[in-house]
Write a structure and sequence with these properties.
single chain; mainly beta; six-stranded mixed beta sheet; globular; binds MU-OXO-diiron; binds calcium ion
Length: 571
Protein backbone atom coordinates (compact mmCIF):
# COMPACT_ATOMS: atom_id res chain seq x y z
CA UNK A 1 0.00 0.00 0.00
CA UNK A 2 1.19 3.50 -0.79
CA UNK A 3 1.97 5.98 1.95
CA UNK A 4 4.31 8.87 2.51
CA UNK A 5 6.02 6.93 5.27
CA UNK A 6 7.06 3.99 3.10
CA UNK A 7 8.08 6.15 0.17
CA UNK A 8 4.87 5.74 -1.80
CA UNK A 9 4.17 3.71 -4.90
CA UNK A 10 3.72 -0.01 -5.21
CA UNK A 11 6.33 -1.13 -2.71
CA UNK A 12 6.21 -1.05 1.07
CA UNK A 13 9.74 0.21 1.67
CA UNK A 14 11.66 3.40 1.05
CA UNK A 15 14.24 3.21 -1.71
CA UNK A 16 17.84 2.54 -0.65
CA UNK A 17 20.22 5.20 -1.94
CA UNK A 18 23.10 4.15 -4.16
CA UNK A 19 26.37 3.96 -2.23
CA UNK A 20 29.92 2.60 -2.38
CA UNK A 21 30.21 1.34 1.21
CA UNK A 22 31.87 -1.97 2.02
CA UNK A 23 28.66 -3.34 3.50
CA UNK A 24 25.22 -4.57 2.57
CA UNK A 25 22.58 -1.85 2.75
CA UNK A 26 18.91 -2.81 3.07
CA UNK A 27 15.84 -0.59 3.57
CA UNK A 28 14.89 0.86 6.94
CA UNK A 29 13.00 -1.79 8.87
CA UNK A 30 15.01 -4.65 7.35
CA UNK A 31 17.99 -6.61 8.64
CA UNK A 32 20.56 -8.67 6.74
CA UNK A 33 22.64 -11.39 8.41
CA UNK A 34 25.30 -13.68 7.01
CA UNK A 35 24.14 -17.30 6.72
CA UNK A 36 27.27 -18.97 5.34
CA UNK A 37 30.57 -17.77 3.89
CA UNK A 38 33.16 -19.23 1.57
CA UNK A 39 35.18 -21.74 3.61
CA UNK A 40 32.64 -22.32 6.40
CA UNK A 41 32.42 -26.08 7.03
CA UNK A 42 29.19 -27.78 5.97
CA UNK A 43 29.79 -30.89 8.06
CA UNK A 44 30.10 -31.09 11.84
CA UNK A 45 33.62 -32.58 11.57
CA UNK A 46 34.93 -30.00 9.07
CA UNK A 47 37.61 -27.59 10.33
CA UNK A 48 36.70 -23.93 10.84
CA UNK A 49 37.95 -21.57 8.14
CA UNK A 50 41.49 -20.41 8.85
CA UNK A 51 41.96 -16.77 7.79
CA UNK A 52 45.76 -17.19 7.75
CA UNK A 53 46.12 -20.29 5.55
CA UNK A 54 42.74 -19.87 3.79
CA UNK A 55 42.35 -23.62 4.12
CA UNK A 56 43.59 -26.59 2.12
CA UNK A 57 42.15 -28.62 -0.73
CA UNK A 58 41.01 -31.16 1.84
CA UNK A 59 39.24 -28.61 4.07
CA UNK A 60 37.77 -26.78 1.08
CA UNK A 61 36.21 -29.99 -0.23
CA UNK A 62 34.18 -30.19 2.99
CA UNK A 63 33.37 -26.48 3.20
CA UNK A 64 31.09 -24.02 1.43
CA UNK A 65 32.53 -23.16 -1.97
CA UNK A 66 33.55 -19.76 -3.24
CA UNK A 67 31.56 -17.15 -5.16
CA UNK A 68 27.99 -18.11 -4.47
CA UNK A 69 25.65 -17.71 -7.45
CA UNK A 70 22.30 -19.22 -8.46
CA UNK A 71 20.40 -21.08 -5.73
CA UNK A 72 17.06 -22.70 -5.05
CA UNK A 73 15.22 -23.69 -1.89
CA UNK A 74 13.71 -27.15 -1.46
CA UNK A 75 11.54 -28.55 1.30
CA UNK A 76 12.46 -32.24 1.69
CA UNK A 77 10.57 -34.25 4.31
CA UNK A 78 10.00 -31.02 6.22
CA UNK A 79 13.66 -30.02 6.05
CA UNK A 80 14.65 -26.75 4.36
CA UNK A 81 17.49 -27.28 1.93
CA UNK A 82 19.42 -24.76 -0.14
CA UNK A 83 21.18 -25.90 -3.30
CA UNK A 84 23.74 -23.26 -4.22
CA UNK A 85 26.19 -22.84 -7.08
CA UNK A 86 29.77 -21.92 -6.26
CA UNK A 87 30.64 -20.46 -9.60
CA UNK A 88 34.37 -19.90 -9.43
CA UNK A 89 37.29 -19.02 -7.19
CA UNK A 90 38.84 -15.59 -7.32
CA UNK A 91 42.50 -16.63 -7.38
CA UNK A 92 43.63 -13.22 -6.14
CA UNK A 93 41.60 -13.90 -3.01
CA UNK A 94 42.06 -17.63 -2.49
CA UNK A 95 45.85 -17.33 -2.98
CA UNK A 96 46.15 -13.91 -1.35
CA UNK A 97 48.32 -15.38 1.44
CA UNK A 98 50.88 -16.40 -1.20
CA UNK A 99 53.58 -14.22 -2.78
CA UNK A 100 52.05 -12.26 -5.68
CA UNK A 101 48.82 -14.22 -5.05
CA UNK A 102 50.17 -17.18 -7.02
CA UNK A 103 49.76 -20.83 -6.02
CA UNK A 104 52.65 -21.99 -3.85
CA UNK A 105 52.07 -25.66 -4.64
CA UNK A 106 49.69 -28.13 -6.20
CA UNK A 107 47.51 -28.11 -3.10
CA UNK A 108 46.80 -24.41 -3.68
CA UNK A 109 45.65 -25.23 -7.20
CA UNK A 110 43.50 -28.07 -5.89
CA UNK A 111 42.09 -25.85 -3.15
CA UNK A 112 40.87 -23.34 -5.72
CA UNK A 113 39.48 -26.22 -7.77
CA UNK A 114 37.57 -27.57 -4.76
CA UNK A 115 36.08 -24.11 -4.16
CA UNK A 116 34.15 -24.64 -7.42
CA UNK A 117 30.99 -26.62 -7.94
CA UNK A 118 28.00 -26.46 -5.68
CA UNK A 119 26.96 -26.83 -2.09
CA UNK A 120 23.79 -28.42 -0.77
CA UNK A 121 23.02 -27.35 2.80
CA UNK A 122 20.15 -27.92 5.16
CA UNK A 123 19.26 -24.78 7.08
CA UNK A 124 16.97 -24.13 10.03
CA UNK A 125 15.45 -21.16 11.77
CA UNK A 126 16.81 -20.55 15.25
CA UNK A 127 16.74 -17.59 17.66
CA UNK A 128 15.19 -15.27 15.13
CA UNK A 129 17.80 -16.09 12.50
CA UNK A 130 18.98 -18.91 10.30
CA UNK A 131 21.79 -21.41 10.75
CA UNK A 132 23.27 -24.25 8.73
CA UNK A 133 22.44 -27.73 10.06
CA UNK A 134 26.01 -28.99 9.98
CA UNK A 135 25.29 -32.65 10.69
CA UNK A 136 22.51 -32.99 8.10
CA UNK A 137 22.71 -36.11 5.93
CA UNK A 138 21.52 -33.95 3.04
CA UNK A 139 24.57 -31.67 3.08
CA UNK A 140 26.81 -32.27 0.13
CA UNK A 141 29.62 -30.72 -1.86
CA UNK A 142 29.80 -31.30 -5.59
CA UNK A 143 33.14 -30.40 -7.06
CA UNK A 144 34.98 -30.54 -10.40
CA UNK A 145 35.88 -34.13 -9.48
CA UNK A 146 32.35 -35.41 -8.78
CA UNK A 147 31.23 -38.07 -11.31
CA UNK A 148 28.30 -37.03 -13.47
CA UNK A 149 26.33 -39.05 -15.98
CA UNK A 150 25.97 -37.81 -19.53
CA UNK A 151 22.39 -38.21 -20.75
CA UNK A 152 20.38 -37.28 -23.80
CA UNK A 153 21.19 -37.14 -27.50
CA UNK A 154 24.96 -36.58 -27.08
CA UNK A 155 25.50 -39.48 -24.67
CA UNK A 156 28.16 -41.76 -26.12
CA UNK A 157 28.91 -39.50 -29.09
CA UNK A 158 32.45 -39.70 -30.48
CA UNK A 159 33.03 -36.03 -29.59
CA UNK A 160 32.50 -36.89 -25.91
CA UNK A 161 34.86 -39.87 -25.73
CA UNK A 162 38.13 -39.48 -23.84
CA UNK A 163 40.92 -41.68 -22.58
CA UNK A 164 39.32 -41.74 -19.13
CA UNK A 165 35.83 -42.38 -20.51
CA UNK A 166 36.05 -44.25 -23.84
CA UNK A 167 32.27 -44.70 -23.86
CA UNK A 168 31.49 -40.96 -23.53
CA UNK A 169 28.97 -41.46 -20.74
CA UNK A 170 30.59 -40.39 -17.47
CA UNK A 171 32.41 -37.14 -16.72
CA UNK A 172 33.88 -35.55 -13.62
CA UNK A 173 32.58 -32.04 -12.71
CA UNK A 174 30.86 -29.61 -12.35
CA UNK A 175 32.62 -26.16 -12.55
CA UNK A 176 31.67 -22.57 -13.30
CA UNK A 177 28.08 -23.30 -12.40
CA UNK A 178 26.39 -19.94 -12.74
CA UNK A 179 22.62 -19.62 -12.65
CA UNK A 180 20.10 -22.20 -11.58
CA UNK A 181 16.65 -23.57 -12.10
CA UNK A 182 14.24 -26.06 -10.63
CA UNK A 183 11.91 -28.65 -12.03
CA UNK A 184 8.34 -29.32 -10.89
CA UNK A 185 9.53 -32.77 -9.76
CA UNK A 186 11.87 -31.25 -7.18
CA UNK A 187 15.21 -31.37 -9.00
CA UNK A 188 17.81 -28.62 -8.98
CA UNK A 189 19.26 -27.46 -12.27
CA UNK A 190 22.78 -26.05 -12.22
CA UNK A 191 24.12 -24.39 -15.34
CA UNK A 192 27.71 -24.62 -16.58
CA UNK A 193 28.89 -21.28 -17.91
CA UNK A 194 32.53 -20.27 -18.55
CA UNK A 195 33.94 -23.80 -18.71
CA UNK A 196 36.51 -22.71 -21.29
CA UNK A 197 38.65 -20.81 -18.79
CA UNK A 198 40.01 -23.97 -17.16
CA UNK A 199 41.60 -25.56 -20.22
CA UNK A 200 45.12 -24.95 -21.44
CA UNK A 201 47.85 -26.64 -23.45
CA UNK A 202 51.40 -27.36 -22.32
CA UNK A 203 52.33 -26.46 -25.89
CA UNK A 204 51.33 -22.79 -26.03
CA UNK A 205 51.44 -22.91 -29.82
CA UNK A 206 48.74 -25.59 -29.89
CA UNK A 207 45.75 -24.46 -31.96
CA UNK A 208 42.33 -25.64 -30.84
CA UNK A 209 39.66 -26.59 -33.36
CA UNK A 210 37.37 -23.85 -34.72
CA UNK A 211 34.47 -25.37 -32.78
CA UNK A 212 36.38 -25.11 -29.50
CA UNK A 213 37.52 -21.60 -30.39
CA UNK A 214 33.88 -20.57 -30.75
CA UNK A 215 33.53 -21.50 -27.08
CA UNK A 216 36.64 -19.58 -26.09
CA UNK A 217 38.86 -22.59 -25.40
CA UNK A 218 42.53 -21.84 -26.06
CA UNK A 219 46.03 -22.90 -25.12
CA UNK A 220 45.89 -20.54 -22.14
CA UNK A 221 43.61 -20.88 -19.16
CA UNK A 222 42.42 -18.04 -16.93
CA UNK A 223 45.13 -18.62 -14.34
CA UNK A 224 43.69 -21.67 -12.58
CA UNK A 225 46.45 -24.07 -13.78
CA UNK A 226 44.23 -27.13 -13.46
CA UNK A 227 46.10 -28.96 -16.23
CA UNK A 228 49.09 -29.05 -13.86
CA UNK A 229 47.24 -31.32 -11.43
CA UNK A 230 44.75 -33.03 -13.76
CA UNK A 231 45.89 -33.79 -17.29
CA UNK A 232 42.38 -33.87 -18.77
CA UNK A 233 42.47 -30.06 -18.68
CA UNK A 234 45.32 -30.08 -21.22
CA UNK A 235 43.32 -29.65 -24.41
CA UNK A 236 46.23 -30.67 -26.63
CA UNK A 237 46.23 -34.11 -24.98
CA UNK A 238 42.48 -34.48 -24.43
CA UNK A 239 40.77 -32.33 -27.08
CA UNK A 240 37.33 -33.83 -26.37
CA UNK A 241 37.28 -33.00 -22.67
CA UNK A 242 35.89 -29.46 -23.22
CA UNK A 243 32.98 -30.97 -25.19
CA UNK A 244 31.87 -32.63 -21.95
CA UNK A 245 31.22 -29.31 -20.21
CA UNK A 246 28.83 -26.44 -20.86
CA UNK A 247 25.58 -28.23 -20.06
CA UNK A 248 22.62 -27.94 -17.74
CA UNK A 249 23.02 -30.49 -14.94
CA UNK A 250 20.11 -32.01 -13.03
CA UNK A 251 20.65 -32.84 -9.36
CA UNK A 252 18.31 -34.54 -6.90
CA UNK A 253 18.84 -32.61 -3.65
CA UNK A 254 16.83 -35.24 -1.73
CA UNK A 255 19.36 -37.99 -2.43
CA UNK A 256 22.91 -37.14 -1.38
CA UNK A 257 24.19 -40.33 -3.03
CA UNK A 258 22.66 -39.54 -6.45
CA UNK A 259 24.80 -39.00 -9.53
CA UNK A 260 24.12 -35.63 -11.17
CA UNK A 261 23.00 -35.85 -14.80
CA UNK A 262 24.30 -33.66 -17.59
CA UNK A 263 21.28 -32.96 -19.78
CA UNK A 264 22.78 -32.61 -23.24
CA UNK A 265 19.33 -32.20 -24.80
CA UNK A 266 19.35 -28.62 -23.45
CA UNK A 267 22.37 -27.77 -25.58
CA UNK A 268 25.95 -26.80 -24.92
CA UNK A 269 26.85 -23.18 -24.47
CA UNK A 270 27.75 -20.79 -21.67
CA UNK A 271 24.57 -21.47 -19.77
CA UNK A 272 23.35 -18.75 -17.45
CA UNK A 273 20.22 -20.26 -15.90
CA UNK A 274 17.40 -22.61 -16.86
CA UNK A 275 13.86 -21.27 -16.42
CA UNK A 276 11.49 -24.24 -16.43
CA UNK A 277 7.88 -23.72 -17.46
CA UNK A 278 5.10 -26.30 -17.47
CA UNK A 279 3.28 -25.42 -20.67
CA UNK A 280 -0.51 -25.50 -20.87
CA UNK A 281 -0.38 -28.88 -22.64
CA UNK A 282 1.96 -30.32 -19.99
CA UNK A 283 5.13 -30.17 -22.04
CA UNK A 284 8.22 -28.88 -20.25
CA UNK A 285 9.67 -25.71 -21.76
CA UNK A 286 13.07 -24.45 -20.63
CA UNK A 287 14.29 -20.95 -21.50
CA UNK A 288 18.05 -20.43 -21.43
CA UNK A 289 20.53 -17.64 -22.15
CA UNK A 290 24.06 -18.03 -23.48
CA UNK A 291 26.03 -15.33 -21.69
CA UNK A 292 28.56 -14.14 -24.18
CA UNK A 293 28.64 -11.10 -26.42
CA UNK A 294 26.79 -11.86 -29.62
CA UNK A 295 25.47 -15.25 -28.55
CA UNK A 296 21.87 -16.40 -28.40
CA UNK A 297 18.72 -17.05 -26.43
CA UNK A 298 17.41 -20.64 -26.49
CA UNK A 299 14.31 -22.67 -25.80
CA UNK A 300 13.89 -26.40 -25.17
CA UNK A 301 10.51 -28.12 -25.55
CA UNK A 302 10.09 -31.66 -24.22
CA UNK A 303 8.47 -34.37 -26.31
CA UNK A 304 6.67 -35.85 -23.32
CA UNK A 305 4.29 -34.19 -20.90
CA UNK A 306 4.63 -33.68 -17.18
CA UNK A 307 2.05 -35.02 -14.76
CA UNK A 308 2.52 -34.63 -10.99
CA UNK A 309 3.66 -37.98 -9.63
CA UNK A 310 4.18 -39.32 -13.15
CA UNK A 311 7.31 -40.42 -14.96
CA UNK A 312 9.82 -37.58 -15.43
CA UNK A 313 13.03 -39.39 -16.42
CA UNK A 314 12.90 -38.47 -20.12
CA UNK A 315 11.49 -34.94 -19.90
CA UNK A 316 14.92 -33.32 -20.09
CA UNK A 317 16.36 -36.01 -22.38
CA UNK A 318 14.00 -36.06 -25.34
CA UNK A 319 12.87 -32.80 -26.89
CA UNK A 320 13.60 -30.07 -29.39
CA UNK A 321 15.97 -27.10 -29.22
CA UNK A 322 15.26 -23.66 -30.67
CA UNK A 323 17.09 -20.33 -30.90
CA UNK A 324 15.35 -16.95 -30.86
CA UNK A 325 15.04 -14.62 -33.82
CA UNK A 326 13.82 -11.12 -32.99
CA UNK A 327 12.34 -8.87 -35.66
CA UNK A 328 12.42 -5.09 -35.43
CA UNK A 329 8.61 -4.86 -35.58
CA UNK A 330 8.19 -6.34 -32.10
CA UNK A 331 7.56 -9.89 -33.25
CA UNK A 332 9.87 -12.86 -33.00
CA UNK A 333 10.11 -16.55 -33.72
CA UNK A 334 11.77 -19.66 -32.40
CA UNK A 335 13.97 -21.29 -35.02
CA UNK A 336 14.20 -25.07 -34.68
CA UNK A 337 17.69 -26.57 -34.48
CA UNK A 338 17.44 -29.80 -36.48
CA UNK A 339 19.75 -31.64 -38.87
CA UNK A 340 17.66 -30.21 -41.74
CA UNK A 341 17.81 -26.56 -40.60
CA UNK A 342 21.45 -26.60 -39.44
CA UNK A 343 23.10 -28.97 -41.91
CA UNK A 344 24.55 -30.93 -38.98
CA UNK A 345 24.71 -34.71 -39.03
CA UNK A 346 22.39 -35.43 -36.15
CA UNK A 347 20.79 -34.08 -32.99
CA UNK A 348 23.79 -35.18 -30.93
CA UNK A 349 26.08 -32.83 -32.84
CA UNK A 350 23.55 -30.00 -32.45
CA UNK A 351 23.53 -30.61 -28.69
CA UNK A 352 27.35 -30.42 -28.58
CA UNK A 353 27.98 -27.59 -31.08
CA UNK A 354 24.87 -25.66 -30.23
CA UNK A 355 26.35 -22.22 -30.91
CA UNK A 356 27.30 -23.30 -34.42
CA UNK A 357 23.81 -24.69 -34.97
CA UNK A 358 22.15 -21.44 -33.91
CA UNK A 359 24.47 -19.46 -36.19
CA UNK A 360 23.48 -21.73 -39.06
CA UNK A 361 19.78 -20.85 -38.69
CA UNK A 362 20.40 -17.10 -38.34
CA UNK A 363 19.32 -16.54 -34.74
CA UNK A 364 19.62 -13.01 -33.33
CA UNK A 365 22.95 -12.19 -31.70
CA UNK A 366 22.26 -10.78 -28.24
CA UNK A 367 23.82 -8.46 -25.66
CA UNK A 368 24.88 -11.29 -23.33
CA UNK A 369 21.70 -13.05 -22.20
CA UNK A 370 21.88 -13.65 -18.45
CA UNK A 371 18.95 -14.86 -16.32
CA UNK A 372 15.55 -15.67 -17.77
CA UNK A 373 12.45 -15.54 -15.54
CA UNK A 374 8.79 -16.37 -16.08
CA UNK A 375 6.13 -14.01 -14.77
CA UNK A 376 4.03 -16.29 -12.51
CA UNK A 377 0.91 -14.23 -13.20
CA UNK A 378 0.84 -14.46 -17.00
CA UNK A 379 2.62 -16.06 -19.95
CA UNK A 380 5.39 -13.51 -20.19
CA UNK A 381 9.12 -14.16 -19.94
CA UNK A 382 11.95 -11.75 -19.08
CA UNK A 383 15.66 -11.94 -19.88
CA UNK A 384 18.44 -9.67 -18.64
CA UNK A 385 20.79 -8.60 -21.43
CA UNK A 386 23.60 -7.45 -19.24
CA UNK A 387 25.72 -5.30 -21.61
CA UNK A 388 27.82 -5.67 -24.73
CA UNK A 389 30.72 -3.33 -25.19
CA UNK A 390 31.35 -4.82 -28.64
CA UNK A 391 27.79 -4.53 -30.01
CA UNK A 392 27.98 -3.21 -33.55
CA UNK A 393 31.76 -3.56 -33.60
CA UNK A 394 32.97 -7.11 -33.55
CA UNK A 395 31.57 -10.60 -33.14
CA UNK A 396 32.48 -13.25 -30.59
CA UNK A 397 35.43 -15.42 -31.72
CA UNK A 398 34.15 -17.28 -34.74
CA UNK A 399 30.67 -15.90 -34.13
CA UNK A 400 28.31 -13.76 -36.14
CA UNK A 401 28.19 -10.05 -36.84
CA UNK A 402 26.37 -8.09 -34.13
CA UNK A 403 24.44 -5.26 -35.78
CA UNK A 404 22.41 -2.88 -33.64
CA UNK A 405 18.71 -3.66 -33.76
CA UNK A 406 15.71 -5.35 -32.16
CA UNK A 407 16.20 -5.94 -28.44
CA UNK A 408 19.86 -4.87 -28.73
CA UNK A 409 19.34 -1.21 -29.66
CA UNK A 410 22.62 0.42 -28.64
CA UNK A 411 26.12 0.26 -30.02
CA UNK A 412 28.83 -0.41 -27.39
CA UNK A 413 26.07 -1.10 -24.87
CA UNK A 414 27.44 -0.17 -21.43
CA UNK A 415 24.32 -0.46 -19.32
CA UNK A 416 22.21 -3.39 -20.45
CA UNK A 417 18.47 -3.89 -20.81
CA UNK A 418 15.72 -6.38 -19.98
CA UNK A 419 13.73 -7.84 -22.85
CA UNK A 420 10.41 -9.63 -22.35
CA UNK A 421 8.28 -11.70 -24.67
CA UNK A 422 4.76 -13.08 -24.74
CA UNK A 423 4.35 -16.40 -26.58
CA UNK A 424 1.55 -16.50 -29.16
CA UNK A 425 -1.75 -17.42 -27.50
CA UNK A 426 0.07 -17.96 -24.22
CA UNK A 427 1.53 -21.19 -25.59
CA UNK A 428 5.22 -21.49 -24.64
CA UNK A 429 5.65 -24.15 -27.34
CA UNK A 430 4.35 -21.80 -30.08
CA UNK A 431 6.83 -20.71 -32.73
CA UNK A 432 5.90 -17.02 -32.57
CA UNK A 433 6.05 -14.37 -29.86
CA UNK A 434 5.81 -10.64 -29.34
CA UNK A 435 8.51 -8.75 -27.47
CA UNK A 436 9.33 -5.37 -26.00
CA UNK A 437 11.98 -3.89 -23.72
CA UNK A 438 10.86 -3.70 -20.08
CA UNK A 439 13.72 -1.39 -19.15
CA UNK A 440 16.76 0.06 -20.85
CA UNK A 441 19.33 0.82 -18.15
CA UNK A 442 21.31 4.02 -18.39
CA UNK A 443 22.64 6.99 -16.51
CA UNK A 444 20.40 10.07 -16.79
CA UNK A 445 22.80 12.00 -14.53
CA UNK A 446 25.55 11.72 -17.12
CA UNK A 447 23.87 11.16 -20.48
CA UNK A 448 20.93 12.30 -22.53
CA UNK A 449 19.31 10.17 -25.18
CA UNK A 450 19.77 6.43 -25.46
CA UNK A 451 22.36 6.19 -22.67
CA UNK A 452 20.06 7.94 -20.20
CA UNK A 453 17.89 4.81 -20.23
CA UNK A 454 14.16 4.28 -20.60
CA UNK A 455 11.46 6.32 -18.86
CA UNK A 456 11.34 4.03 -15.80
CA UNK A 457 15.00 4.83 -15.06
CA UNK A 458 15.81 7.98 -13.07
CA UNK A 459 18.65 9.37 -10.99
CA UNK A 460 17.14 7.73 -7.90
CA UNK A 461 16.86 4.13 -9.11
CA UNK A 462 19.47 3.92 -11.86
CA UNK A 463 21.65 0.82 -12.22
CA UNK A 464 23.73 -1.00 -14.80
CA UNK A 465 24.44 -4.60 -15.82
CA UNK A 466 21.19 -6.40 -14.93
CA UNK A 467 22.06 -10.07 -14.38
CA UNK A 468 20.00 -12.13 -11.92
CA UNK A 469 16.22 -12.10 -12.38
CA UNK A 470 13.61 -13.77 -10.21
CA UNK A 471 9.90 -13.26 -9.73
CA UNK A 472 8.39 -13.60 -6.31
CA UNK A 473 5.01 -15.27 -5.94
CA UNK A 474 3.21 -11.92 -5.90
CA UNK A 475 4.42 -11.30 -9.45
CA UNK A 476 7.08 -8.70 -8.68
CA UNK A 477 10.35 -8.93 -10.58
CA UNK A 478 13.61 -8.76 -8.64
CA UNK A 479 16.66 -7.58 -10.54
CA UNK A 480 20.25 -8.19 -9.41
CA UNK A 481 23.21 -6.42 -10.93
CA UNK A 482 26.83 -7.24 -11.71
CA UNK A 483 27.76 -3.65 -12.23
CA UNK A 484 30.55 -1.52 -13.53
CA UNK A 485 33.10 0.37 -11.46
CA UNK A 486 31.28 3.27 -9.74
CA UNK A 487 34.47 5.34 -10.04
CA UNK A 488 34.00 5.48 -13.80
CA UNK A 489 32.06 8.39 -15.22
CA UNK A 490 29.53 6.27 -17.10
CA UNK A 491 28.54 4.63 -13.81
CA UNK A 492 28.87 7.72 -11.61
CA UNK A 493 26.16 7.90 -8.97
CA UNK A 494 25.07 4.30 -9.46
CA UNK A 495 27.10 2.88 -6.56
CA UNK A 496 27.93 -0.75 -5.95
CA UNK A 497 26.05 -3.69 -7.47
CA UNK A 498 22.54 -3.91 -6.15
CA UNK A 499 19.14 -5.55 -6.09
CA UNK A 500 15.97 -3.80 -7.19
CA UNK A 501 12.30 -4.69 -7.40
CA UNK A 502 10.13 -3.93 -10.40
CA UNK A 503 6.41 -3.99 -11.09
CA UNK A 504 5.86 -5.63 -14.50
CA UNK A 505 2.51 -3.88 -14.92
CA UNK A 506 3.62 -0.29 -14.30
CA UNK A 507 7.35 -0.52 -14.99
CA UNK A 508 8.15 1.06 -11.64
CA UNK A 509 11.59 0.08 -10.30
CA UNK A 510 12.91 0.67 -6.80
CA UNK A 511 16.30 -0.15 -5.29
CA UNK A 512 16.06 -2.57 -2.35
CA UNK A 513 19.67 -3.47 -1.57
CA UNK A 514 23.20 -2.29 -2.27
CA UNK A 515 26.06 -4.80 -2.05
CA UNK A 516 29.56 -4.29 -0.64
CA UNK A 517 32.55 -2.95 -2.60
CA UNK A 518 33.49 -4.85 -5.70
CA UNK A 519 30.81 -7.51 -5.19
CA UNK A 520 28.07 -8.70 -7.47
CA UNK A 521 24.62 -9.53 -6.14
CA UNK A 522 23.97 -13.06 -7.42
CA UNK A 523 21.32 -15.58 -6.47
CA UNK A 524 17.95 -15.13 -4.79
CA UNK A 525 15.39 -17.38 -3.19
CA UNK A 526 12.89 -17.18 -0.36
CA UNK A 527 12.03 -19.16 2.72
CA UNK A 528 8.79 -21.13 2.37
CA UNK A 529 6.89 -18.42 4.31
CA UNK A 530 8.52 -15.68 2.18
CA UNK A 531 9.57 -13.84 5.34
CA UNK A 532 13.26 -14.36 4.60
CA UNK A 533 15.01 -13.60 1.32
CA UNK A 534 18.32 -15.38 0.76
CA UNK A 535 20.66 -13.33 -1.40
CA UNK A 536 24.15 -14.18 -2.64
CA UNK A 537 27.06 -11.75 -2.43
CA UNK A 538 29.65 -12.81 -4.98
CA UNK A 539 33.29 -11.73 -5.36
CA UNK A 540 33.43 -9.09 -2.60
CA UNK A 541 36.88 -7.63 -2.12
CA UNK A 542 37.30 -5.84 -5.39
CA UNK A 543 38.31 -2.21 -4.96
CA UNK A 544 39.96 -2.99 -1.63
CA UNK A 545 36.95 -4.44 0.16
CA UNK A 546 37.07 -6.87 3.08
CA UNK A 547 33.41 -7.80 3.44
CA UNK A 548 31.92 -9.28 5.53
CA UNK A 549 34.38 -9.13 8.46
CA UNK A 550 36.07 -5.87 7.48
CA UNK A 551 39.48 -4.78 8.77
CA UNK A 552 42.20 -6.85 7.12
CA UNK A 553 40.14 -10.01 6.92
CA UNK A 554 40.05 -11.87 3.61
CA UNK A 555 36.91 -10.98 1.67
CA UNK A 556 34.49 -13.90 1.58
CA UNK A 557 31.57 -14.47 -0.71
CA UNK A 558 28.50 -15.31 1.36
CA UNK A 559 24.77 -15.88 1.41
CA UNK A 560 22.84 -13.37 3.48
CA UNK A 561 19.40 -13.82 5.01
CA UNK A 562 17.22 -10.71 4.87
CA UNK A 563 14.19 -10.29 7.11
CA UNK A 564 11.85 -7.53 8.10
CA UNK A 565 12.24 -6.45 11.69
CA UNK A 566 8.47 -6.74 12.15
CA UNK A 567 8.47 -10.22 10.60
CA UNK A 568 6.45 -9.13 7.58
CA UNK A 569 6.63 -10.23 3.98
CA UNK A 570 9.67 -9.10 1.97
CA UNK A 571 9.12 -6.31 -0.54
FE1 LIG B 1 28.01 -16.23 -14.36
FE2 LIG B 1 26.69 -14.78 -16.85
O1 LIG B 1 27.04 -14.86 -15.13
CA1 LIG C 1 25.23 -14.01 -13.90
CA1 LIG D 1 27.20 -10.93 -15.16
CA1 LIG E 1 29.72 -13.49 -11.60
Amino acid sequence: AASAQDGGGRFAFAQVAANTKDEVTVPDGYRAEVLIRWGDPISADGPEFDPETLGTAESQARAFGANTDGMEMFVIDGRIVLAVNNEYANTRVIWSNRPRAKPADDDDIAKAMMAHGLSVIEIAEADGGWRVVQDSMLNRRITPQTPMEITGPARGHDLLKTAADPAGVLVRGGFNNCGAGRTPWGAYLTCEENFNGYFSAADRAYEVSPALRRYGVSARDWGYRWARIDERFDVSKHPNEPNRHGYVVELDPADPESTPKKRTALGRFKHENAEVVVNGDGRIVVYMGDDERGEFLYRYVSDGVYAPGGETAMLLEEGALFAAKFHDDGTGEWLALTPETTGMADLAEICIHTRLAASAVGATTMDRPEWVALNPKKPEVYCALTNNKARGRKPNAGGDETPVGGPNPREANKYGQIVRWRPAEGDHAADRFEWDLFVIAGNPAVHRGANAGSENVNEGNMFNAPDGLAFDETGMLWIQTDGGDPEKRDFAGQGNSQMLIADPATGEIRRFLVGPKGAEVAGLCWSPDRRTAFVGIQHPGGEGGHWPEGGDAPPRSAIIAIRREDGGLIG
